[in-house]
Amino acid sequence: MDLGPHAAFIWLSYAAVTVTVIGLIMWLIADGWRQRADLDALERQGVKRRSSN
Amino acid sequence: MQTLTQRLANPTRFMELSARLLPWISWATVILLVYGLYLAFLASPADYQQGETVRIMYIHVPCAWLSMMIYGLIALSSFGLLVFRHPLADVSAKAAAPLGAAFTFLALLTGSLWGKPMWGTYWVWDARLTSVLLLFFLYLGLIALRSALEDEGAAAKLTAVLALVGVSLLPIIKFSVDWWNTLHQPSTDFTSTVDPSMRLPLLIMALAFTLMFFAMHLKAMRNEILRRRVKALRAQAVAGRDRFGASAAQGAAE
Asked: Which one of A15, B123, B173, B183 counts the least CB within 10 Å of its CB?
C-alpha cells in the first residue's frame, strides 16, 4: 500500500492509537483480575458481604 | 414504574446487566473497527488537497469526538451525584476520566501528526488546539484531585464540582473555530462538507470508537464497583476483629 510522502505520519498516528487502546484494554483486564482476586481472597477468609449472607 | 437509571441504581443489578452487555458491545466494536479500517485504507480515495494524509482523519475525528463526549458524560454523572445522589454516578465519573484523558491525548497527538505535513508545524497556539489542550489538563486535574483526597465521599463531591465548572469548556471548544480566526478548519458537517466516499469510513470509525469507549467504560465501572466492595469488606473485617478483640479483652477482665 503506497501512502505517499507522508506515510510515516499516517503509520505513526495509527500506531499511537493502537498502542494506547491496547494499553487501556490490558490495564482494564488486569485491574479486573486484581479486584476479583482480592475479593475472592477476602471471601476465602470468611469475610462476606452482608447482602450475600 | 421504575426508570432505567433507577433500575441501574443497584450495583449488583448493574453488574449482572453489564456482564451480559459487555461481550455484545465488544464484538460489535471489533466488527465495526475491522470494517472501518478496511474502508479507511482500502476503499476510500486520497483527498484532492490532503492526499493520503486524510487517512489520519479517520482516527483523529473519532478521538476528538470522544474527548468531548466523555467529558459530557462525566459532567452528567457529576450532576447525577450532586443532585440525585445516584449510587453509580460517581462510579461512572471516576471510570470515565482516565479514558477521556487518553482519547484527548490521542486527538492532540494525531492532530499534531496531521498538522506537520499539512500546516508545516506540529503545533500552533490556535483557539481550537489550545482549548483541547486545556480539556486534557482538566481531565488530569480531575484524576489528580480525586487521588489527592483520602476521603472518597469528599473526593467524589469536589471532583463533581470541578467537572461541572469545567463543562463550560465544551462550547468554547465546539465554537472556537467560529468565534476566532483559527488555523484549524471549521466544524465538520457530515451532510455537506465531507465527500460521501470519505463520509462512510468516518462515520463507521466514529461509531466503532464510541462503542469501544462504552465497552471500556462498562469494564472500568465494573472494576470500580469491585474495588469498592473489596474496600468495604476490608473495613468490615477490621471492624469485626476490633469487636472480637474488645469482647475478648472484656471477658479476660471479668
From this structure: A15
Helix segments in chain B, DSSP class H: 4-7, 11-41, 57-84, 89-119, 127-148, 152-166, 169-179, 196-253
| ipTM attached to this prediction | 0.91
Work out the average pLDDT over A9-37: 98
Q: What pTM, to 2 d.p., does this model score?
A: 0.91
Cβ distance A42 to B60 less than 8 Å, yes or no, reads no
φ, ψ at B188 (rounded to 5°)? -75, 125
What chain B holds in terms of domains, given with CATH numbers, is 22-220 (1.20.120)
pLDDT in tens, B127-143: 999 999 999 999 999 99
**Contact A22/B at CB under 8 A:** no
Residue entry with cell 461541572: B164
Q: At what angle do helices B127-148 and B152-166 cross, to 10 degrees?
A: 170
- Distance of alpha carbon B176 from alpha carbon B7, whole angstroms: 39
CA-based nearest distance B5→chain A, Å:
21
Q: Which of residues 33-52 of B touch A (CB under 8 A)?
A: 41-42, 46, 51-52
